[in-house]
Structure formats: C-alpha cells, structure tokens
Amino acid sequence: MKGGNYTSLGTYSGINAGGNVAVAGKMSLGKSIKMYLTIFILTTCIYMALYQYHISREPFAASEVVKHQEKSSSYIASYLWSPISLLMANSSFNTINNSTTTSTTTTTAPTTPTTTTTGTVGSVGQKVGASSTSSIRMVSLAATIPSFKSESRSGSLGGHQKTATMKTSTTTTTTRTTASGLATTKLLATTRTTAKTSAKLSAATTPTASHMENGHKTRPTFVAASLPPPLYIITPTYRRPEQLAELTRLGYTLKHVVNLLWLVIEDANKTNPLVGHTLDRIGVPYEYMVAPMPEKYKQTKKAKPRGVSNRNRGLEYLREHATEGVLYFADDDNTYDISIFEQMRYISKVAMWPVGLVTKTGVSSPIIQAGKLVGYYDGWIGGRKYPVDMAGFAVSVKFLKERPNAQMPFKPGYEEDGFLRSLAPLDDAEIELLADECRDILTWHTQTKKNAPAQALNRTRYKNTNLEHIDRLLVRP
Ligand code: UGA
Ligand code: MN
User: Fold this and answer.
1) How far is CA 251 from CA 93, 142, 234, 449, in A?
2) Residue 79 has what pLDDT?
3) Among 79, 108, 123, 305, which residue has the fewest nearby CB atoms (within 10 Å)?
4) Annotated catalytic, 416?
5) Which ligand is closest to the CA of 364, given by its number?
C-alpha cells in the first residue's frame, strides 16, 4: 500500500512502516509531521470510542467475582469502612460493602436502647444513647463474626453488645453498663434469617441473571464481601488526662478495619463512663473491661510492668471467646498504618515486623538475610531472646490456644520477650515476616506529651454555662 491512501483504519502500522516515506520526500517536513499527527490522533480516538462501546456492552464475567484471596495492600481498599458509605445503602457504589450495609439495615430494627440516667453523669448517658446509631452499625458488623456465635455471657461489660440492648444504670459516680451475649446471638439470627437480607445479599454477592440480561456494568470490579479472619486488638489503657484523646485517635484508625473486635482493658478497679462514651461514639465493636495492676507493682519505686495485667486479661478473654483469627497488642498511644492489620490477619503462628521510633537505633526490627530471620536490631538487647517491641508482633488465636500457659510476665522490659518465650515451642522459621519482609515501617512506638491534670473549674463564676458540661468530660486522676 502506498502512502496517501488512508481510507482503511487498518493501515495505521502500514503507514508507519514506510509507505509514506516516499510521499514525505515531496512534501515539506512540517506538513508531513502535521499529517502524521492528525492521523495518529484520529485513529486513537476511533479505537478508544470503539473500545468504550465494547466494554459497556460486556456483561460480568464470572472470573470477576473475586473472593478475598490476597493480602496485598491494594486489596485493603475493598475493606475500607466508612460511615458515609454505610449511609449510602442504596447507591450502587456501596455494594462493595454489601454485607456490612445489609446487616446494618436489618439489625437496627431489633435494637431497643433503654437508657436510664440520673444524677451528674446524666448527660453522658444521654449522649451514649444518642450516639448509638453509629455504634449499632458496627454492632451488626460484629454480629456477623462467626466466633461470636457461641458467646452467651451475662454481667460482663459489653461494648458492641451494649449498644444492642443498651441498659445504662447510673449511680452518682459511675455509669455501669450491662449487656447479655444473647443480644449478639439475636442480632446474628436476624442477620442470618431475614429473607430480605439474604435476598439482598445474594443479589449483591453474585452476578445475577438480571445483571446479565441488562448487560449493565455499574462498577469496574466486583468484590465478594465474605469476611476475612477476625482481628482481636488488645489495648491496655489507664486513667490520665490524655486517655480519651489517645483512645479516640487509635479508635478511628481501627475503624478502617473490618471484622475487628477491640478489647479495651483499663488498669483500674472500675470502668469509667467517659471511656465507655468515647468508645460508643467511635463506633468500633469493642469490649471494655478492667484489670488492675497488682498492688505490689503499683507501690514499687522501680519500673512498673505497664499494661501487663490488662494484656493478660485480654488473653483470658480470647481463650474463652475466640476460636480463630489473630491477636495484636496495640498500646493506646502508638501509631498504626492500617495495612499491617490486613497483613496480620492471615498468619498461622507468629508474625513480626519493624517498629519505628524505638530507642536510640530509631527502629526495632528483626534482621532478615536471604529471606531468613537471622537476629534482631534494637537499641537494647538485654539478654532477650526476642528483643522486639510490643507493637511489632502478632499471634494467631489458634496458636495461642495451643499454648494454654502462655502469658505476659510482670517483668518491666521483658514483657514481649517473656510472652513470646511462653509460646514455645516456636521455631524461628515459623515466624512470618510482614511489612514487605521487614523492609517497611508500618507501626511506630509514639509517645504523647504528658499533661498536668486540669485545674478545678470555678463553678460559681461559670454557673449555667457550657463549661459545666465540658468539665465533666475531663479525665482527672
Ligand atoms: C513500652 C512498651 O511498648 C509496653 O508494651 C510496655 O508495657 C512498657 O514499655 C513497659 O515495658 O513497661 P511505654 O510507651 O514505655 O511502653 O509505656 P506506656 O505507653 O506508658 O504503657 C504501655 C501500655 O500500658 C499503654 O497502652 C498504657 O495505656 C498502659 N498502661 C501504662 C497501663 O495500663 N497502666 C499504667 O500504669 C501505665
Ligand atoms: Mn507507650
């Protein structure tokens, strides 16, 4: 074919292949370039238009139904949870979060919050009630976690359950919350049996005949919303001015992670309604418990085993209530990239990864050579077998349960080491290396500046002002 004949679309490569070279010799160079460009743009446009048309006519291919099969961080997006997406229950965009959305709508119905509030913390109680809408959404999410099925407790302090059958009985100083495991079971039953739910679910999780018939494609990819293995996040906390700020920051990080139960365990003799209120408002499924540090450690002038009784209480809870998934100790003041949660879900025994901002070395990390764990990098080794930070490892629930005596020692500086040793036998080769084989930093041991306790409010001067309310929200020793 000779240059100049551009009638056929198929000549694109032919033109470039030299047919036009002869013509170019007779034309000015500028004109020739202009012509090439015009032809190139035109043909590209036509191809694009044709391709778009082709795509819009193509029904779902079965292979596009992806189950959670990978751990890559790009996949996290499909698990991202946001209240906005939940509110958009009927929008096609939201079908990605379909199971969440559907169970939300159905489980809200049986919820009958009963809030009894008296005395000075009345406003807190009311706010708990008012904030229940957001929590209920997460309740329904928790209700779909398989391991909650067998729970039937009474008298335990329940977070996610609490929002379901909320009964807040208030004394003059404390708001006590009781919940029954029954509520969860009921929620579960509702989620599972409602015809509407299952119909909606199946419509959302499988490409149905109507999808095929209409030939419409409402979004580029489709992700089936079966839940990934559950995560149990054990967070020790204690009373101090920064407490609610720390929990708020961590809580909203955890809110981006599905199928997660947050075990918030306070080093105290009784729960604090302000903490309960904060957890309710965040809306992550939680259990709020107490586990005071034994008196003998509290009295000591030496370093205290901080958060140990709390973490051991968390382990006890898991031995009783959990069957699968993964546990992670997340101190309330640290910083976490949510991709680490998606990576730790799938581990079989123990996993480790680097933690930033630890000691003079700036990071604490396993040392990897040729894909193998060969040692540990940490500013303080201290004769430890596992010189790692609390934020740098996770353990599978099944593995924990195979080690009935595993727990954390009340030994300052040796908490991590003692706990990991108590998981023996554990081969180094069995330790999974996350965060890009320990080449990335996804958790940081951050510390918040300590604040002096707030001074007392001048109640005479600020009588009948908002400050009377705010003052009740401050955590004082
Ligand atoms: C470091 C480690 O990361 C902790 O896991 C370890 O328990 C602690 O050292 C230790 O060796 O004692 P660090 O940042 O120094 O942590 O300690 P904190 O953040 O003050 O406490 C760790 C956790 O325990 C926090 O979640 C905190 O809320 C809780 N905690 C602290 C208590 O429950 N009670 C306390 O009296 C102090
Ligand atoms: Mn800390």
Assistant:
1) 25, 15, 12, 19
2) 37
3) 123
4) yes
5) 1
Select which of 295, 416, 430, 437 is catalytic: 416
Cβ(234)–Cβ(266) under 8 Å? no
Q: C-alpha angle with apex 287: 408 to 259, nearest 5 degrees?
A: 95
Give the C-alpha separation, 341 to 339, whole Å. 5
Lowest-pLDDT range of 176-180, 211-215, 395-399, 401-405:
176-180
Q: Could you give all domains of the chain from N- to C-terminal order, each with its CATH number? A: 229-442 (3.90.550.10)
Mean pLDDT in residue range 266-275: 98
Say what the pTM is. 0.63
Helix (H, G, I), strand (E, B) or coil at 417: helix
What are the DSSP E strand ranges found in 229-321? 231-237, 260-266, 286-290
What is the 3 state secondary structure string of 165-202? CCEEEECCCCEEEECEHHHHHHHHHHHHHCHHHHHHHH
Six token digits for residue 63? 């292979």
**3 state DSSP class of 57:** helix
Choosing from 246, 266, 306, 446 the residue with most ligand 1 atoms within 8 A of its CB, the one to mutate for a pocket test is: 306
Looking from the CA of residue 305, the nearest atom of ligand 1 is 12
Residues within 6 Å of ligand 1 by CB:
236-238, 267, 293, 304-307, 310, 331-333, 389-390, 412-413, 415, 445, 447
